[in-house]
Amino acid sequence: MDPAANLTAIQKRIKAACARANRDPAAVTLLPVSKSQPPDAVRAIAALGLNLFGESKVQEAKAKIPLCPGHLRWHMIGHLQTNKCRDALELFDMIQSVDSLHLAQEINKRAEQAAKRMPLLLEVNVTGEASKFGYQPERLLRELQQINALKRIEIQGLMTIAPWTLEPEKVRPFFRRLRELKEQCEQILGAPLPHLSMGMSGDFEVAIEEKATFVRIGTALFGRRPPANTTKAAEKTA
Ligand SMILES: *Cc1c(COP(=O)(O)O)cnc(C)c1O
User: Fold this and answer.
1) Which of 47, 100, 101, 181 has its CA 20 to 30 A from that of 120?
2) Which residues pair with 52 in a beta bridge?
3) What is the C-alpha separation between 99 and 155, in angstroms, rounded?
4) Would you give the DSSP letter of residue 167?
């Protein structure tokens, strides 16, 4: 795998999707997802000029970030447990995966202690799949004002994970639903929300056509993720 060639190909596809949707490519941020990738892989991508990365586990990020170039910035994109909020506030510039009022309150509390403000996205489960984290849409709309009232957090938009599919066109309705939900949130709040984080390696072009501002891309950029359990797998074959 050649990260430079991967990046060039992805950027070309982002531009083409933007052209189809009449959008400025500068309005779409590519968020490389470095979960399960070692610091060397992050360094290789950072050397291509990317400086914002996504991680999905606090523990992994806490170990990895100090081994990566210091100028990089990081977004949390995985499920966050309340007992990891303090670390998350230190490690990340944005938490894209806030999925309950309780979690937002905990982030708010920790942000206050750290004298910070934390930008966040609210993760929505637009597919209704029981296996997925994320706000159920009706509940999000009910609790939105309460979250917004928290002084140390700043709601910047919505995030979702579409079902895995070989046919990206099939997930378009979920991206569209998230976009409509953002409009409903904007009406409730009486203010615009700048971000829609949606689209991954298999479906980012469709997401861009539906107005994604962050596309979170792992495998198409880094290549396949190393298996999580390398040592155990090695033990088994030994
Ligand atoms: C792993 C992950 C991605 C990237 O997935 P790819 O299919 O490898 O591009 C994006 N978003 C979240 C929340 C993830 O956990």
Assistant:
1) 47
2) 73
3) 12
4) -
Indicate the pLDDT class of residue 28, thresholds 50, 70 and 90.
very high
Q: What is the DSSP letter of 60?
A: H
Mean pLDDT of 46-74: 98
Neighbour tally for 122: CB within 10 Å: 28
- List the domain boundaries for the chain: 3-237
Q: Which of 216, 217, 221, 224 has the most ligand 1 atoms within 8 A of CB, as the residue to mutate?
A: 216
Distance between CA 208 and CA 7 in Å, rounded?
A: 17
Topology (CATH level 3) of domain 3-237: TIM Barrel (3.20.20)
Expressed in angstroms and rounded, the spacing between residue 215 Cα and the centre of ligand 1 is 9
| Lookup result for tokens 């029981």 | 130
